[in-house]
UniProtKB/TrEMBL annotation:
It comes from the Bacteria. One of its GO terms (cellular component) is plasma membrane. Residues 208-395 form the Major facilitator superfamily (MFS) profile domain. This is MFS transporter. InterPro entries: MFS (IPR011701), MFS_dom (IPR020846), MFS_trans_sf (IPR036259), MFS_Transporters (IPR050171), Tet-R_TetA/multi-R_MdtG-like (IPR001958). It is a multi-pass membrane protein. The chain crosses the membrane at residues 12-33, 45-65, 77-95, 101-123, 135-158, 164-186, 207-231, 251-270, 282-299, 305-327, 339-363, 369-391. Keywords: Cell membrane, Membrane, Transmembrane, Transmembrane helix, Transport. It holds the Pfam family MFS_1. One of its GO terms (molecular function) is transmembrane transporter activity.
């Protein structure tokens, strides 16, 4: 029993290591996409935005495909295949980084990466030796730690030669592939391990009540991601219009990263000692997002933007890691991959729609109207989700 637990702990450790390496690699690429296309390839910002929109939409498809592949028992092969394809696309970028090779390879990497990430999330959800909340907290922590490391190192690499970014990222993904090929075993999932589970249970569909609860949680998550994406797009322009420089805007993301990296292990530690009801946590996080988005209506100086970013980050740290845990808890074993795919789809769809919707609202009305609509949408869907959850749990 002790040896089995040790092996399971090791498997989780390798999942976390892979998550750290892959997120570090991708954090070399995504911050420079717009700058590289505009400054190095001479393309317009609108065209760069269109490429990012297409990539987000392709990632939505990839997330859905990844979930279906996992549920159909083909997760192991396709996880390795898609990680290998991502590594090959990144290797190709070292030599083919002009137009249109750069956006095409970027989109291929986004598609294959979305498939692999969904399969790996479903694999993580299958580990029953740890509470799902703890697993996803640690996965989320490693992903954000990778972003902090990547964004810190990327400036140094760019100062030497921007094309070295593609080399470093490709090397990291090759390491990621080797870890996945040798350490990511699908044989110890709950479905295979528990011999008492009958075929009927494996084929059991997720109850309609659970689907409604999942839908409510994910629709609110989508609204939050639409609002959150404003921080990564339109807020930088808004802050400059108020006389706040881009350097100060970038410091806000440093604050975001520090809070996530420090806060996530603390939450995971207390979760293991005294678990908190999943729904209480997610709705506390949603409530903090409502307060954070409301604060933007009154933000006119840098201090207020710092306060708003701190609130947004606390909401993110509390709510985001618990969402896949809720989905795992409510979905049947035979549809685990499908519903983990919907978690990724909600995030990708929010990032795809957010900047465009925000730009349309700002162009037609104002930034204040945008912030007020964000607050209203998140508040409405949070209330709907809470109502659905209450009646489902009561039943």
């Amino acid at each position: 029993m002790g040896r089995e637990m040790k092996n399971n702990r090791l498997k989780l450790g390798w999942l976390l290591a892979g998550n750290l390496i892959s997120s570090t690699g991708m954090s070399f690429i995504w911050p420079l996409t717009t700058v590289y296309m505009h400054d190095y390839l001479g393309k317009t910002l609108a065209l760069a935005g269109m490429v990012l929109l297409i990539e987000s939409l392709i990632m939505i498809v990839g997330s859905y495909v990844g979930g279906r592949l996992y549920d159909n028992g083909k997760g192991h092969f396709w996880m390795l295949f898609t990680i290998a394809m991502s590594a090959l696309a990144l290797l190709a970028l070292i030599f083919c980084n002009g137009w249109p090779a750069y956006p095409l390879l970027l989109i291929i990497n986004g598609f294959t990466g979305a498939i692999a990430n969904t399969i790996i999330n479903a694999l993580a959800a299958s580990i029953k030796e740890f509470d799902a909340s703890y697993i996803f907290n640690m996965m989320y922590f490693m992903a954000n730690l990778g972003v902090v490391i990547g964004t810190l190192v990327v400036g140094f690499v760019v100062s030497i030669n921007i094309r070295y970014i593609f080399l470093v990222t490709a090397i990291l993904y090759i390491i990621f592939f080797l870890i996945a090929a040798t350490k990511y075993s699908f044989e110890n999932t709950q479905i295979v391990k528990n011999k008492s589970i009958t075929k009927r249970k494996l084929n059991k569909k997720t109850p309609i009540g659970n689907i409604l609860v999942i839908g409510g949680v994910l629709m609110t998550y989508l609204m939050i991601q639409i609002g959150y994406s404003q921080w990564q797009s339109n807020l930088s322009v808004y802050m400059q219009s108020l006389g706040i420089g881009l350097n100060k805007y970038s410091y806000l993301w440093t604050i975001n990263g520090i809070i996530v990296v420090i806060g996530q292990p603390i939450i995971a530690f207390f979760d293991r000692r005294k678990p908190v009801n999943y729904f209480k946590k997610v709705y506390i996080g949603y409530g903090i997002f409502i307060i954070a988005f409301t604060s933007l209506v009154f933000a006119r100086d840098y201090t207020h933007f710092i306060v708003s970013m701190v609130l947004v980050t606390f909401g993110e740290v509390i709510a985001f890691p618990i969402i896949p845990a809720i989905v795992d808890d409510l979905s049947s074993d035979s549809e685990r991959g499908k519903y983990q795919g919907f978690v990724s789809i909600s995030a990708s769809l929010g990032h795809a729609m957010g900047p465009l919707l925000g730009g349309l609202i700002i162009g037609g009305f104002s930034y204040d109207v945008l912030f007020e609509i964000m607050v209203l949408l998140v508040m409405i869907f949070t209330c709907l989700s809470m109502g659905i959850t209450y009646f489902k749990l009561k039943k």
